[in-house]
Amino acid sequence: MFNYFHKIRHTKPSLFGVLIALFGVLVLTPDTLAIRLSELDRWPLMGWRGILMGTILLLGWRLFFSQNPSSEWRSLRSWPGLVVIIAFSMNSVTFTIGIVETSATVVLTSVATMPVFAAILSFFMLGERQGWSGWLTIAAAMGGVGMVVLDGNNAINVPDGSVVVGAVFGVLTAIGLALTFTMVRKHRNLAIVPAAALGALISGIIGFSLSDISGIINGPLLPILIMGVVILPLSFACLAVAPRYTSSAVVSLLMLLEMVLGPFWVWVGIGERPTSTMIIGAAIVFVTLTLHILRTHWPPQN
Fold it and tell me: Would you say residue 65 has pLDDT above 80?
């Protein structure tokens, strides 16, 4: 199997990129279920996720991905590097708070609007203009999110926090991810893996600093380790490497699977179930963004 992927990497790099991105997304999809099974409060959860992910990412980067470590470290001592570190730290904080607050469907549907905010940021930072169809896509996607949020209180077996707060934190996560990847597109010499690792470590330190000792040590060990040592670093490493071989549009399209499969695993695993209206709203977001990405990046050939 390893030899097969090694061959594909050199003979069909685009296919290799798709396979790596698909693998990364599939690894990521049980993340929300692992959060629920950890039974941790928000601050200990944030601490474990950040510290474990950041540590494993740094080790993985140093052992497998770094080509010129000193140069890559220097790239982080710049304002773009600081922006990416802060943005990734914000992603870790906002996603953790949002997913503990309310339904996984609400948060993951909000996070799925990342391509929307990437388009807006690309307009201001890269001069990439959006036509009328682009803005129509943005309006339709946000309308779908609105449907999910408005019916979020009727979901079954979900946390009893605020649906609106969870959705806001999901949108903030989408903005942080969009900012991260837009900055990386603009500053291609920026080392994203160590930047993400440092951002994760910062969020972990914040989480542990706001936790009490009993909250840190009372969670079941297995889901915490699976989440922090396997799911988060492995999925992000794959999603960070994939755009080197295929287009970022392909990666964005595959990442929409998280919006579909993440709530599914939570539904099967612990019975957290969205309403029919929430499913319809999530489907509107999924279909709208999928069609927009396909239309803009794979136009019909003459």
Answer: no
Q: How far apart are CA 272 and CA 163, in angstroms?
A: 14
> pLDDT at residue 67 above 50?
yes
Q: Indicate yes or no: pTM above 0.70.
A: yes
Mean pLDDT over 56-78 rounds to: 85
**Hey, what are 161's tokens?**
């926090």
Other beta carbons within 10 Å of 226: 17
Phi/psi of residue 126, nearest 5 degrees: -120, -5
Sort 221 into a burial class: Cβ within 10 Å, 0-12 / 13-18 / 19+. exposed
Strand partners, 273: 156
Distance of CA 91 to the CA centre of its chain: 8
Q: What is the CA radius of gyration of the chain?
A: 19
Q: For residue 218, what are its two tokens?
A: 């009372």
Task: Write the DSSP string, 153-187.
Answer: GG-BS--SS-HHHHHHHHHHHHHHHHHHHHHHHH-
Crossing angle for the helix pair 257-270 and 104-111, to the nearest 10 degrees: 170
Hey, is 156 helix, strand or coil?
A: strand
Quick one: DSSP state of residue 243? Answer: G
For 187-275, where are the alpha helices, taking DSSP H only?
Answer: 192-209, 213-217, 221-225, 232-241, 248-255, 257-270
DSSP 85-139: HHHHHHHHHHHHHHHHHS-HHHHHHHHTTHHHHHHHHHHHHT-----HHHHHHHH
Q: Residue 235, Cβ neighbours under 10 Å: how many? A: 23
